[in-house]
Amino acid sequence: MSDQPLLRIENLHASVEGAEILKGVDLTVDRGEIHALMGPNGSGKSTLANVLMGNPAYEITEGRILFKGEDVTEASPDQRAVMGMFLAFQYPEEIPGVTLVNFLRTALSNRKGIDYTILELRLKLVDVMRDLGMEASFADRYLNEGFSGGERKRNEVLQMAVLEPELAILDETDSGLDIDALRTVAEGVEKLATDERGFLIITHYQRLLDYITPDVVHIFLDGRVFTSGGPELAKRLEEEGYEGFREEALA
């Protein structure tokens, strides 16, 4: 196993349309770790997720991103995905005319460098879909078209299970979920947690962490990591809200 961290973010600054959103982010995720990044709306959490995956709408103005020891600051989203980075979106897009099974076949073939057939992909999907409580017919639906909020998030976890990324970034995957869907997503994440895979779970709610116990919790305020610690930080956040941390920052 490499002694390099799986993900290292160094002094990362990023802007969108000239407005600086990330203001010096430092963060390290090792293999086998689950990190929770918690912050209020507008703090820059989703910007960080997009920048990590190379969204061209965001401009990195300073700092760098290292994945498995390799500088990927200038890498394209496709290059990062092939290397083993994955982003579960807060609001997954509809793609009419593209079935889930075809989408996953193309994505997995690119990820692994193997030209999978539809049959091979369907066989791979059977066990994963059953574990996520998804009917087999789900695979033939157009990607996210007509999906409920819970179905969209289950689909994101399904993609993660099939693509087997080394780093999974979940951008507010718990947003808009009822308790049953939340539990299903959390169980899916726990089944995928291995010593070789790292997770960065971005949220502003404590409730997802009732089902997933993170190794490290980061409090994200005003475009940077304000403080980091164990699960007790999330408990403190539930009791005090973000205002307590803001007051501490101003002290």
Task: Walk me through what this model shows.
With 251 residues, this protein is of the alpha/beta class. It has one domain: P-loop containing nucleotide triphosphate hydrolases (Rossmann fold, 3-Layer(aba) Sandwich). Helices cover 36% and strands 28% of the residues. The protein contains 7 helices and 12 strands. It has helices spanning 45-52, 77-83, 100-112, 118-131, 149-163, 179-192, 232-250; strands spanning 7-16, 19-29, 34-38, 59-67, 70-71, 85-88, 95-99, 142-143, 167-171, 198-203, 216-221, 224-229. A hairpin with a 2-residue loop joins β1 (7-16) and β2.
Reading off the top of the CATH hierarchy, the class is best stated as Alpha Beta
Radius of gyration: 18 Å
Per CATH, the superfamily is: P-loop containing nucleotide triphosphate hydrolases
CATH architecture: 3-Layer(aba) Sandwich
Strand order of the largest sheet: 6-9-10-3-11-12
β-strand number: 12
**Number of structural domains:** 1
What structural category do the secondary elements indicate? alpha/beta
Please tell me what the overall shape is: globular
The low-pLDDT segments are none
What fraction of residues sit in β-strands? 25-35%
| Cα-to-Cα separation, first versus last residue | 43 Å
**Helix share, percent:** 25-40%
- CATH topology descriptor: Rossmann fold
Multimer state: single chain
- What is the succession of H and E elements? EEEHEEHEEHHEHEHEEEH
Q: Averaged pLDDT, please? A: 88
Major sheet attributes: 6 strands, mixed
Number of helices: 7
